[in-house]
Amino acid sequence: MHIFNDIVGQEKAISFLENILEHGTASHAYLFTGPDGVGKRTTAVSVAAALNCAQGGCGSCAVCMKIKNGAHPDVESIKPAGNSLKIEQIREIGQSIGLKPFEGKRKVYIIEDAHLMTVEAANALLKNLEEPPAYAAFILTAAGADSLLPTIRSRCQEVVFRAVPPRVIQSVLLAAGAEDDAAEIATALSGGSVGKAKRLVIGGAAGDIRAIILDRAAEISEGSIIDVFAAKDALLPLAKEKDKGDGSSIEAEALAILGSWYRDLIVLRETGNESLLINKDRASQLTLAAERISSANAAAALDILARAGDALRTNANKDLVLEEALLAINCMPPTVARLEG
After folding, report:
1. Looking at the domain assignment, is residue 132 inside a domain?
2. Domain closes at, from 107, 127, 160
3. Residues 257, 209: Cα–Cα separation, whole Å
4. Is residue 187 part of a domain?
5. Per residue in 290-314, pLDDT tens?
6. Does residue 135 sit in the same domain as residue 228?
7. What digits encode the pLDDT tens for the residues 176-189?
8. pTM value surpassing 0.70
9. Which of 154, 308, 309, 316 is most buried, with most CB under 10 Å away?
10. Distant-in-sequence, close-in-space partners of 55: CB < 8 Å, separation ≥ 6
11. DSSP secondary structure letters along 22-71
């Protein structure tokens, strides 16, 4: 099916979906689980197109293009409003599901980041999943199945998406014309997301976030609280690009990039081998920081960032989570330089 041609690194999931679509055995509800940015949403849109395309997912007809561009009246994407999916959003499904498709064969509801549903929203969705019309289909995306109510999980067929292997991501970037060094750094920072890796190479929000965070990384550890707030506020102009279509967020990417910095500090202090760095283009900056920041402090910072990352996958306020993580790092015990002074 041509509709799946742009999805890389998910051969098992795509093979399964192609098989059920070709044999007409698609379920009324699927749950796509896996890390952010690995193709869950793109695949959900492709499945919606395959269910409505006269050719089973050609990828180029008017129906496929409408669905891909978010302009088809029978395919609806429901995204979190703020930090959660609210009951009012799910109730709108209940109001429209009884109406037959306007111009397609199936009505498809794509519920993104379903793990962010409130309990009330999840219970409202459950009513629609129990006895949906034959023409209705649901595709939920979530970080993991365990983050959903068991009653929701039991009514969906799970399709697992994996982080895309580094070799696959790097080959995609090189094929797109990226330089070897840029492709290597972007791959290491991508977290298995092809979309994020591409943005890191070509610029845009992800590239800007990296510059903002790494330019201020030492100040976050050793500067004043004012420096910490300045670093966070520097990300504000990127807020308009927050919805990048792959489930990631400005805050999550900032935490991941800062995490790569502290990881590199530990590697440099413990091995002195610059070839092992993720941020090879920041080697001189890291060398200076490694003279002042201990491995213990860098490891503690990684722990803070990991816990903040876990919090971002809940209904927590993303801006506040980032702020608290940066402040916690800044308020850690003295670094090497302060101790020796």
Report:
1. yes
2. 160
3. 8
4. no
5. 999 999 999 999 999 999 988 887 7
6. no
7. 888 898 899 999 99
8. yes
9. 308
10. 61
11. HTT---SEEEEESSTTSSHHHHHHHHHHHHH-TTS--SSSHHHHHHHTT-
